[in-house]
Each structure stands twice: as C-alpha cells, then as structure tokens.
Inverse folding.
C-alpha cells in the first residue's frame, strides 16, 4: 500500500501507464503526458539531481509558472527523500534568500531567464546552493555561469546514472516513509520572516484521502491548475488529490490564457480564493451590460428565478414544480451559456477558501447552478479542515469538519484543530511551533463557534471586528464585500472603528471602469487619471449607494475616495493570496484616512514611481473625496 | 514538454560579425531636395545598429533605400548572404525574398484579420504550393500549411502573444499591434530586420517590453537589427553601434559611448533639445569631464 506521494505515482504508472496524467497547452495545442511518461521524467530528474549530489536531508526550491516540470521537480525531490519548497514568483529578494538559507536548499529549479536573472542577482548570498536548473532555455544561450544547467541536461545525467545504478530509484522510493517531510510550505505571515510549515507525506496523503471521502472525484475528471503551486490550495488539488485519485491536471499556456484554456478543458472541480470568484461575477455583469437588448432582457428575467431557486435550496425546501420548470428553461436559455463561457459548465463542485466570500457572490453562483462551497483551513493543516457538504450550504458558515479531523473551541473562543494532516512543526523554528502546536492541537489564531447545525462559523480575525459609534460590532469585510460585488470596484478598505462614521477607500477595476468609460466616451490615459474623473466618481457613488441600501444606518459609508493606485502585493499591501493587510494599509495611507475624516473635499498626494532601470519620477495627484449626504 | 524554439527564425548563411550590408556613397534626392548625401555604411551579421538623428535627417529614407521602396540615384547597396547581391535597383518583394524584412512607422497590418492569419501571411514568401493545390489543400500544400503554423507558433511563443492569437488585429492595443508587426516581419525568416521607430508612441512599460523582444530576436536567433529610434535611453541601452545622420549626411558612427561624446553629435542635437541624453548619461559625462 502506497504511503508516500512518489509511491502513489509509481502505482498509477503501473496500473494506467497510458492514461493522461497531465496536459499542457503549448504551441497552441494541448500536449499530454501519460502516467508512464510522468514517472520516467520524475525518475530521471531525481537521479540527475542525485548524481549532482542531492542528499535526503536537503531541500529544493521551485519558482515558476504552473508547468509539468514544476510538479515533476517536486516529486523528484521527494523520490530522493528530500523536501520541496514552492516559492511565489513575485516574492521579494529578502524573502527568497531567507527561505533558501533557512531550509538548506541545494537546488533551485526555475522557469526561465527572468528568474535566472533574479537568482543571479542574489547569488553571492545563496550559500549552499549547488545548481540552478531552468526548464525554459529561451534567452539563456549566452549565459556561462557553471552552476546553471537545463532541466533536460539534468534528466540526461539521470539516465546515465540509471544505467550505472539500475534499480536504485525504485529502492529509494520504496524506503520512503509516511513520516518523511514532503514539502515545506510558506505561510503568509504579516510580520517578520516567513514561516515554513513542515508537512509530511502522511499529511498530504491523508488530506487528499479525507477530502475525497466527502467529495469523491473520478480518474477521468479534469482539473485546471492556474493558481500558484506554491500555495497550499494548489498543492492540495494537484498533488494530494491528483495523486490520490489520478485525475488529469491541465496547465494553461500562459497566465493570460487561463480563461480560454479553462473553457477548453471544462474541469469538474475548481478551488480558488474569493478574488477569482468575484472577478468572474464582474465579468458576467460587464458582458451582459455590453450585450444585445434581447440577451439583457433574458438575463434579467432568468436571474430572479435562479436566485429564488438558490434561496429555496439554501433553506433545504423543495421547490414547486412550476419553479423547477421555469428554472429548467432559464438554465437552458442562459445559465448553461454563461457557465460555458466561464468554463464552469461541467463543474461538479467548486471551492472557495483563504478569506471570506460575500453572500452576494455565493448566491450568484448558486443561482447559475454552480455548486460553490466554502473551505476552511490553513497551510498548517494542509489547506483544508472544514468544508460545506453538498446540499448543506450556509454562506455565513464554512461547513463541517472532514473525516479524521477534530475541532474544538477553547475558552478564549479560538478554533483548535487536530488531524493527521496537521504539520509536524514550523521548520527550524521551535518558538513559533510552540505557539501554534500544543498537545497535538493546532491553534489557528481565528475566533469562531459552532452553530446549531454543527457548522463552524469563523469570525473575522478578532482584532479586525470594529465597534461602530453607536456601539454595534461590525465586520469591515462585510461592507467591503458588498462594495466589491460591483464589477467596477476591485478592492475596498473600510474604516470606522475608531472614527465617528464609516468611510471607504476604493480601488476601481481598471478593465471594467475603462470599458465603461469607453462606452460613455470618456477619454482617459492612466489608472490615476481614470480614477479621478468626475463621471467615474458618480459611477462609484451609485455603487456605494447600492451597498449602503442593505446596511444598517450606522454602518453606511458616509465618505469615500478613489485611490490613485492599485493596492499591490509587491508593496505588501495585499498578501500573496490577495487579502488586504488592513493594518499596513491603514498606516501607509494615514494621511488619506485623516483627510477622509476632515472637512476637506480633496487631498494632494505625491507618489514616487521607480522605473525598472532605477530612474524615479514624482507624480502629483489631487484626490477627490466624495461625501454621500450631498455636497462633497 | 517541448521547450525552446523548434525553428531558426534567421535564414542567414553568414557568421556573426561578417559584413552583411555594404552601403556605398548613397545619394537620394526628390526634385532637387536632397534626402541622403554620400552616405556609406556597413552592417554586420548579428549586430544591433541604431540610426539616429534629428527630424528630417534622412533616417527613414535610408531604410527605404535598403528595403527597395526608394532607389538611390547614386551609389550602391550590396547585400551578402549565400552570395553577393546588388540590391540597389531591386523591387521591395525581391529584397524581402532575399531576407531583409521591415516594419513601418505606422502599423501596416491586416486590421480585420486575426493575429495568427497576419503572421501566416508573413510566411507567404516561402510558399511553394500554387493556387490550385492550395485550394484543394491536400498533400504538399497541406504539409506546408502545417509547417507554417508550427513555425508561426514559435514566433508567438517568442513574442508572448499566446493570449491574443485569435483576436483581430484591429481590436488590439497599439503596443500589441506593434508586437504583432514585429512578428510578421519575423515570419519572413529575415537575416536583417529593419525597424522604423518600433517604440514610437508607447508608454515606458511597453517600450521596455519591446526592447526586450528586439534583444531576444537578436540574441536567440542572431537576426541583425537596424532600427530607427528617438528614445535615446533605449538606443543607448540596446545598440551595439550607432550611426548619426544630420541633413542627409552621416556625421558620426561608433559605439553608443563614442557617439555620445562626439562633438558633431552634440552640436547637431543642441539646437533641438538639450536633453537628448538624459538621466545617467548626462551625469556620466560630468563625472568624466
């Protein structure tokens, strides 16, 4: 019985050598890799690294877009008994150096010239790294550094090694134990150095096993992998579930072609953070706005039926025969079409996790007939501990625990979790480990409680809940999600806890507002320019009014402004999974927040832009502040 | 897992550094107005040569002479590839067939066709099948089309335009259209690529992208690049050699550093705009002086 990930790979390759394990769109065509070929690649790449000196106690780091090589490298390292670490492509230099030194990384696997250049810049500090292996040779022809080697060359070394040491690979894989560490996964820390959660093969395998018990998948199912493989959610689907079940993992051609490739594949399952689902809603709304009158009419007729159906199902009532027929018709006329365009037509299940998703978005997808469910988990418990069951969905909850997972709430209201998937420790960080793991229980740092149906409810991180001036407690995320349901609002940060009223800082959605501006013959040049147009302020004002209509008076937004730049993960304003870092944003935009609570109707800001060649320019912008109760 | 390029985008037979284009005493005038006066210039295989100069200096005229749109009244243009070709009096299509491709200051693409079709159209100089067999689309004509498509996919990969493959060119942003135009020139498998202001009208990010693609074409495939460009930052960054024209005459030639310090060049530019060599270049001069 297989207990490590490479052992699962060998099992699949033995049982179904000619079934497709992976597909990648390349040169415009889907190119498939069978389980047999997958194993061959892993074997040769593993032996290649071993011949270059890879030891079991070491680790490899992988940076790049989602490609077969990414996964092959991970499995190859694990086959040799070593660990793999996925790094985000947009990680900062300091972060990369810290992780590589901290985890004894001996090989770095990168995609192409861009990352090679990045590594070369910091090379002098990367002690202990023996080779940098790239898999896309484009642009690297004239690089002469002796530590650079191509993926194919490593595989060739592996073939030679295999000739001299036949059977070595199979023996080494057989020696692998469930308690070996499979991956080190970075956690999105808000302060200080990143922490690396050490996850064993047992953790990876049991997680896949337990999720599949709740939501079974079949080997002939398809999955499209387009979120960073460094993220635990993607590891969960591609590695844990993929190797458990043996479904086909598809890699898009480029990040820009995801939508198109998703539609071509039509996956049976998807797992994305809220951001992706919010964007899909915006896309639909904008496309409908742009379409013919007939389609608009149809859409406006069908959506209320969809919502009605969704609400009845949420209440677990049985819909009337009439409604069922109407829904069938709406589905046939328009919902199928929308789902087809988004690549969601064949979805059995869709998951969202990582942050709270607004109820509006939830209802929207269920109205279309997309079985969208909430997941709750953390990197430290391999991504998932709690999930909605099919037909038992409540959007204020995150569902019930998956098998083999115990959850309890301690006296402070903190959520504690215990399961075989919990990490062994933070890698080489006993202090942090002691804080998170006590007597086998993982302390999540989230506050929560169980409702009467046994569903877990996660409250916003306790410190984020704000007390309004009239004393009611309110979650800023709730207001922000209301705003973000508008296709024209990309990001919103709401303030109000320590202030006399609620105000908001809004990022417009450049693509959608840009399109709207085009349709209304409003000329603009840049994001900054567009965001400060009077007409755009009017447009957003209407979105704020709509959000306000659903809110209790004390929680209504009184003043807002449109930010001149997009909040950016590169500036640490968002986490890598695109959650707003509220405290940091509040600090950085201190002057803007004070202006929101002053009498003034505008604010001058200066921003320094650094071009990539090191030149800098200072931009002066006047930001308007809009008051909701007339004037402004 | 195919990675890298399956096709060579360059049809040259020369080695890097070989003399590729020998322009000898070219003179061009329109009804008495002199556009080029005794311009001589050598272009070598696999270099990036920039032609700079104030407005009306004759840069585009020179490019047009090379590509056969204009024929100089005096002088010769010799092109070396498998042999020696005097291209002075050849028609543009004949010159294109010999391996000299160009892009224009204004975008000259088929606006209502897809990116893919525009690129495939660039392959036509290599088409062997005749009209009839193409219509039947069988045998060699079919094989040829498949071959072209694979070749074009290499260009799409190089220029990173996978996401817009099937879009009509007219619907694309200006920067992307410029990129597609570069792609179509590449579809001709040129040994020399003439680029007339490839970065005009672009924002700094688009410029940076374009500069990178031009460098990729040059480094990966050894295609010689002759470009006209106004952005001095770009010119100084990517060119191996720079030629300066003023009033139809060549006033300087050399590496970017040499040209930057050349008194004639400074003179020619001073009247127009004092900040032609902005930013760090100016500072460098101060330090040196």
């Amino acid at each position: 019985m297989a207990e490590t990930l490479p052992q699962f790979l060998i099992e699949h390759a033995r049982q179904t050598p000619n079934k497709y394990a992976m597909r990648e769109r390349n040169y415009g065509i889907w190119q498939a890799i069978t389980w047999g070929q997958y194993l061959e690649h892993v074997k040769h790449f593993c032996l290649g690294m071993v011949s270059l000196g890879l030891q079991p106690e070491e680790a490899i780091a992988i940076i790049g877009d989602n490609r077969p090589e990414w996964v092959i490298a991970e499995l190859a390292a694990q086959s040799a008994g070593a660990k793999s670490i996925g790094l985000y492509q947009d990680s900062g230099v300091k972060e990369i150096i810290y992780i590589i030194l901290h985890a004894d990384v001996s090989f770095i696997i990168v995609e192409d010239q861009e990352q090679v250049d990045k590594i070369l810049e910091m090379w002098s500090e990367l002690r202990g790294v023996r080779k940098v292996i790239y898999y896309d040779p484009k642009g690297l022809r004239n690089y002469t550094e002796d530590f650079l080697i191509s993926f194919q060359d490593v595989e060739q070394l592996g073939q030679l090694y295999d000739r001299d040491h036949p059977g070595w690979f199979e023996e080494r894989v057989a020696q692998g134990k469930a308690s070996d560490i499979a991956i080190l996964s970075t956690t999105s820390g808000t302060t200080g150095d990143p922490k690396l959660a050490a996850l064993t093969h047992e953790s990876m395998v049991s997680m896949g096993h337990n999720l599949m018990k709740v939501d079974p998948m079949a080997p002939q199912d398809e999955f499209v992998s387009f979120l960073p493989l460094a993220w635990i959610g993607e590891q969960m689907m591609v590695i844990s579930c993929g190797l458990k079940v043996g479904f086909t993992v598809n890699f898009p051609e480029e990040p820009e072609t995801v939508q198109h490739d998703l539609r071509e594949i039509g996956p049976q399952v998807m797992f994305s953070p809220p951001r992706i689902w919010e964007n899909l809603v915006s896309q639909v709304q904008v496309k409908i706005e742009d379409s013919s009158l007939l389609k608009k009419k149809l859409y406006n007729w069908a959506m209320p039926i969809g919502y009605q159906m969704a609400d009845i199902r949420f209440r677990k009532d049985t819909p009337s025969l009439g409604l069922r027929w109407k829904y069938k018709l709406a589905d046939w006329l328009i919902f199928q079409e929308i789902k087809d365009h988004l690549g969601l037509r064949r979805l059995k299940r869709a998951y969202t996790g990582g942050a709270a998703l607004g109820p509006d978005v939830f209802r929207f997808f269920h109205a279309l007939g997309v079985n969208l469910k909430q997941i709750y988990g953390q990197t430290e418990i391999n991504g998932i501990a709690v999930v909605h069951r099919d037909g038992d969905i409540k959007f204020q909850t995150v569902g019930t625990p998956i098998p083999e997972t115990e959850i309890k709430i301690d006296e402070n209201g903190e959520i504690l979790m215990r399961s075989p998937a919990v990490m062994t420790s933070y890698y080489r960080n006993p202090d942090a480990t002691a804080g998170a793991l006590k007597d086998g229980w993982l302390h999540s740092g989230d506050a929560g409680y169980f409702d009467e149906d046994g569903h877990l409810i996660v409250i916003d991180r306790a410190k984020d809940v704000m007390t309004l001036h009239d004393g009611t407690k309110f979650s800023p995320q709730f207001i922000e999600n209301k705003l973000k349901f508008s296709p024209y609002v990309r990001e919103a940060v709401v303030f109000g806890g320590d202030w006399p009223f609620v105000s908001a800082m809004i990022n417009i959605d450049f693509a959608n507002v840009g399109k709207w501006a085009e349709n209304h013959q409003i000329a603009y040049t840049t994001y900054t320019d567009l965001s400060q147009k009077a007409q755009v302020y009017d447009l957003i004002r209407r979105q704020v009014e709509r959000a306000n209509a659903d809110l209790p008076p004390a929680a209504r937004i009184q003043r807002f402004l449109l930010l001149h730049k997009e909040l950016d993960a590169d500036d640490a304003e968002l986490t890598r999974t695109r959650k707003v870092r509220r405290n940091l944003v509040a600090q950085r935009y201190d002057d803007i927040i004070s202006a929101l609570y002053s009498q003034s109707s505008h604010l001058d800001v200066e921003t320094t832009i650094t071009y990539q060649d090191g030149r800098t320019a200072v931009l002066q912008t006047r930001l308007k502040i809009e008051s909701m109760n007339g004037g402004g | 897992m195919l990675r890298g390029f399956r096709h060579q985008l360059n049809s040259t037979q020369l080695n890097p550094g070989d003399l590729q284009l020998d322009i000898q005493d070219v003179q061009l005038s329109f009804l008495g107005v002199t556009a080029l006066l005794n311009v001589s210039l050598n272009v070598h295989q696999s270099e990036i040569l920039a032609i700079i100069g104030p407005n009306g200096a004759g840069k585009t005229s020179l490019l047009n002479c090379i590509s056969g749109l204009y024929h100089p009244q005096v002088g010769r243009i010799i092109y070396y590839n498998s042999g020696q070709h005097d291209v002075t009096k050849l028609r543009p299509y004949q010159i294109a067939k010999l391996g000299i491709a160009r892009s224009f200051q204004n975008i000259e693409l088929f606006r209502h066709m897809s990116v893919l079709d525009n690129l495939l159209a660039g392959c036509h100089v290599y088409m062997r099948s005749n009209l009839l067999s193409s219509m039947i689309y069988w045998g060699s004509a079919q094989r040829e089309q498949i071959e072209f498509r694979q070749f074009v996919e290499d260009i799409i990969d190089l220029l990173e335009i996978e996401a817009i493959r099937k879009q009509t060119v007219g619907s694309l942003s200006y920067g992307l259209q410029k990129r597609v135009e570069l792609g179509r020139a590449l579809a001709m498998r040129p040994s020399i690529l003439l680029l007339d202001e490839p970065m005009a009208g672009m924002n700094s990010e688009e410029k940076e992208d374009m500069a990178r693609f031009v460098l990729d074409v040059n480094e990966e495939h050894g295609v010689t690049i002759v470009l006209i460009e106004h952005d001095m930052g770009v010119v100084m960054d990517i060119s191996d050699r720079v030629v300066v024209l003023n009033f139809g005459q060549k006033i300087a030639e050399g590496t970017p550093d040499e040209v930057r310090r050349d008194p004639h060049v400074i003179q020619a530019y001073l009247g127009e705009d004092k900040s032609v060599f902005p930013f760090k270049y100016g500072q460098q001069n101060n330090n040196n002086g």
Q: What stands out?
A: The radius of gyration of chain B is 20 Å. Residues 140-159 of chain B form the longest helix (20 residues). The first strand of chain B starts at residue 19 and ends at 30. Chain B has one domain: 19-288.
